[in-house]
Amino acid sequence: MVQRPMARKSVLIVSNTNDLHALAVRRELAARGFPVHLLACDRLRDHLLTSGFGSEPFLETEGGRVETAGVSTVWWRRPSLDQRLPEGALDEDQVHFVNANCKATLRSFLRGSFTGTWVSSPEATDRAADKLHQLNVARRLGLRVPDTLLSNDPASVRAFHRRHGGRVIIKAALNSSRVFLATRPADLDRISDAQIRAVPSLYQEFIPGTAHLRVNCFGTDIHAALIETDALDWRPDINVPISAHRIDAALQKQLIALLEALDLRTGVMDLKISDRGETVWFEVNPQGQFLFLEPLTGQNLLAAFTEFLLRA
Q1: Last residue of a domain, one of 205, 220, 247
Q2: pTM, full prediction
Q3: Which residue of 10, 80, 114, 250 has the fewest CB atoms within a 10 Å radius of its CB?
C-alpha cells in the first residue's frame, strides 16, 4: 500500500549553494509530494528571515515563504556560513563582521523558532566533528580503534612513532573546507621539530589491509560499501573495485549505539578490515558524502536517505 504524505510534514534543508546532495534530496522529496525548502545559507542576503515578539518567525527561500512552526525536520546538511558577497564591495574587516553575524543570527533564529527534529543539531554536529572525541566514544563502546596521539610535542610524537616501529600515519584534527588533506604516512625523518610544533595533529598506528568500509548510517538503516585498494586513503582515486557489503548484526548494533552516544541522527563512517581480519573503526562524518556510491554499488542511497528523513 502506498502511504500518502502527511499534511504538515515539511523539510527544511540548510546547506550551501552548490551542494549536490542537498539539491538531489530536495528534488526527491518534491517528487514524492512533500513540502521541501532549501536554504542556501552562504547567500543569506537572498534568503530573508524575520523573528520578533508577537509574530510567527519566517524565512524566504527560492521556494517561497516558510514559517518555521510548520517545519517538521531540519536537515543541517553542510551550512557554509561564509557569505557570497559582491567582489570588492566590503573590506576584510567588514566581511568578517558579516560572516560572524550571519552565522550567529541563523543559528539563533532556528534555535529560537524551530521545535521539530534536527538531522542533526548544530551542537551535536559540531561536537561530533571532534575526531579525538569520536575515537574516545567509539573506544568506550567496544569498537577497535587505532592507537592515537594528538600532539604538537616533538618528543611525544617521535616516541609514539618509535613505539609503532615507524608505521604511523598523520591526519588533520579538523578537516578544512578549503584544502583537501589526504591521510598519509608520517615520515618523521622528513618532518622537523618546528613543523611538528606548528600545529597539533593526529598520529595513529598504521592498520595494514586493503579492505576499506564506507558505512552510511541513516538512523538505524545501514548501507555499507567495500572499497578494495592498497592505497592508505582511497578518496583521491575511486577507480578501484567497490561493491555493496553486508556487515554483521553485532557491528551494526555498535555503530547505531555510537550514533546515539554522539547524539547524531545520521553519519557516514570509515572502517577497515585489517590483514588479520580485525575490523577497525576510524571516524564518522556527521554529514558525509554518499551519493557517489550509488552507481558503483547499485545501492539506492538517495531513496534510502529520503525515506529516513521522512521518518525522522
Answers
A1: 205
A2: 0.90
A3: 250
